[in-house]
Amino acid sequence: MSAKPSMTSRREWIYGWLLLLPAMVLLFAFTHVPAITTLLNSFFSTPRGRRAAKFVGVENYDRMLSDPVFWKVFWNNVWYAVGTIPVSIALAIAMALWVNDRLAGRSFVRMAYFTPTVLPLIAVANIWLFFYTPGFGLFDQITGYLFGWPSSNYLGNTDTALVAVMVVTVWKEAGFFMIFYLAALQSIPLSLKEAAQIEGAGRWTVFWRITFPLLMPTTLFVSVNAVINSFRLVDHIFILTDGGPDNASKLLLFLIYEVAFRHWETAYAASLTVALLVILSLLAIGQFYFVDRKVHYK
Amino acid sequence: MNATSFSYDRLLNTLGAWVLALMWALPLVYAVWTAFHPAAYEANFDLFAPLTLENFAKAWQAAPFARYFLNTVILVTMVLAGQFFLCTLAAYSFARFTFPGRNILFALVLLQLLVMPDILIVENYKTMRLLDLVDTIPAIALPYVASGFGIFLLRQTFMTIPRELDEAARIEGASPLGVLWKVYIPLAKPTYLAYGLISVSHHWNNFLWPLIVTNSVETRPVTVGLNIFSAIDSGVEWSVINAATLMTSGPLLIAFLLFQRQFVQSFMRAGIK
Fold first, then answer.
1. Rounded to the nearest 10 degrees, how much is the dihedral formed by the CA atoms of B33, B38, B41, B42?
2. What pairs with residue A44 in β-bridges?
3. In this entry, which stretches build a coiled coil (chain B) (predicted)?
4. How far apart are CA A47 and CA A50, in angstroms?
5. pLDDT (tens digit, 9 = 90+) per residue, B191-219?
6. Which of A46, A221, A252, B55 could form a disulfide with B243 if both were Cys (CB 3.0 to 4.6 A apart)?
7. pTM value?
8. B39-53, B142-156, B157-171: least confidently modelled range
């Protein structure tokens, strides 16, 4: 009697493990193991030709912390995240509220918001590069026509290059985040809104007191995604600015690519990758605790 | 509360929504305009400018886009097939089997949502060199096949399926894999559609990893091909580059316009869970 349940549970274990095996092998091979070897390699020198890598302790990290380019890129990424995430989220909420409402030409409006999401970032960058072209790009034409501004090279100027890249990011991401807010809005019971309106609350009050708090779990989800994306997506940089001018629009992952695959300093790239992973983890944990206290779960 | 202030409010909102929508559509409309008109009109808006397909023809001839498209289609199919297969098995295991180490393994799967292959480019490139897979299409696909997001999404779906259905099929003598095939997969079809759309659009658009791991015409997907094409400073006309840009996004854009509702719903479905 006592052997039988353990037999079936043993069989269940084996089934469970076998079903999991193929996915786990690949997951470990391309995510967990590389994450660990990145950490290990960051303590070694870059192997060159016949010269094997040798243990150098924290030398790569020393170099990183005293590298002005690293700090420039680090702050670029911070400003990039700070500049794009709140704007994208605010726009996404506005878009979702509008599209969720009865609105003339709603399907066109929704399509316009969402279309950038389906396009490849690299293609989007091409379109925007043309948009920004000094002189005859549409951007200059519009500002020239409306305000009489002279032609300006937004992507070639250290003061504006990062902002120009951020505009493209917001354009690409806001529509994507809108979808999640749209889903959340449709799950809010109408009775709550109606009750508030009967009490005499205006649209703003209803939004700030009812809708916005109820959207908090979505905001948490979207902001975690947005933070990860702000460190993960650098495709447009390749087309728009190639990190320049003078590192003004370089982001961390782009720097890692450059160090690893243009200068072939893989050990230094490994320590930069560790820095990126640490930043991501801290942000994810921090965000979770920060927003968690404000989230209104049902 | 009175009617006039209400309609005033509505008017402002409609106006805001439309201004934003036009701003959002403008870059794309502009690209379409230049791609379908001769180069002379790229900054010169004449409503009666002659339409032409010449830019597309030029772009198509200037670079091996046919081959790039084929590569992307192979890549996207490979990733999707692999993801469906591996993620289904793993999700079924997490959803309906109890075994030691399940929670830890699941946490490790979820960790991939944060520590993504996109970031681990240096080590993954070394692995591909070790496997002698550099400059092959499988090398682009492999890191993404075991998708933490896919496993999570399918597990959530499988867990909503009533156990009674599962047990009924077992009593009729179906094996665990038979139950998966006959009960779970058919009931999870909407999730597969949603995940499929997301996966295809994601990998069609992916750029950095394919850029690193490919270096020949036979393996490059369209995104990398487009980058190489438009990076040549040899005075390729803007209208031709824009035509190439539209071409590479074309299939996805057309699919999106045709299946707009499914697209939006599938992204929503994926987001809720």
1. 60
2. A55
3. none
4. 8
5. 898 888 889 988 999 999 999 999 998 99
6. B55
7. 0.88
8. B39-53
Q: What is the CB neighbour count within 10 angstroms for residue B159?
A: 12
Q: How far is A66 from chain B (nearest CA, A)?
A: 22
pLDDT category at A253 given cuts 50, 70, 90 is: very high
Contacts of A171 (CB under 8 A, 6+ apart): A116, A124, A128, B24, B27
The complex's ipTM works out to 0.87
In a domain, A176, yes or no: yes
Say if A142 falls within a structural domain. yes
In the structure encoding, which two tokens stand for residue A236, read together? 């447009």
Radius of gyration of chain A (CA): 25
Overall domain count for chain A:
1
> Residue A78 and residue A173: Cα distance in Å, rounded?
17
For B57-272, CATH number?
Answer: 1.10.3720.10
> At A231, which CATH number?
1.10.3720.10
Find chain B residues with C-beta within 8 A of A117's C-beta: 267
Which of B18, B111, B249 is facing A123, going by the closest CB pair?
B249
CA distance B201 to chain A (A): 6
N-to-C CA span, chain A: 46
- Range of the structural domain that residue A131 is part of: 69-292
Coil/strand/helix, residue A189: coil
CA distance B49 to B38: 8
B115–A260 C-beta distance less than 8 A: no
Contact residues on chain A for B207, CB-CB shorter than 8 A: 120-122, 235, 238
Phi then psi for A239, rounded to 5 degrees?
A: -85, -45
Exposure of A188 by Cβ count < 10 A (0-12 exposed, 13-18 middle, 19+ buried)?
middle
Measured between CB atoms, which of B120, B121, B268 is closest to A31? B120
Residue A226 within any structural domain of the chain:
yes
Render A202-253 in DSSP notation, one character per residue: -HHHHIIIIIHHHTHHHHHHHHHHHHHHHHH--HHHHHHTTT-STTTT--HH
Question: CB distance B18–A9 less than 8 Å?
Answer: no
Closest residue on chain B to A264 (Cα): B122
Give A157 to chain B, closest Cα distance, Å: 20
**Which spans in chain A are helix H?**
3-27, 33-41, 59-65, 68-100, 106-118, 121-132, 138-147, 161-186, 190-198, 203-206, 212-214, 216-232, 235-240, 252-261, 266-292
CB B158 within 8 A of CB B99: no
pLDDT in tens, B245-263: 888 888 888 887 787 777 7
Chain pair A-B, CB pairs under 8 angstroms: 265
Is B79:B141 a contact under the CB 8 Å cutoff?
yes
A98: which chain B residues are within 8 Å (Cβ-Cβ)? Answer: 13, 16-17, 20
Residue B261 CB partners (closer than 8 Å, separation 6+): none
Residue B26: pLDDT band with limits 50, 70, 90: confident
Q: CB neighbours of A13 closer than 8 A, spacing ≥ 6?
A: B97, B98, B99, B100
Containing B11, the helix (H) or strand (E) segment is helix B3-35
Residue B44: closest C-alpha in chain A:
A136
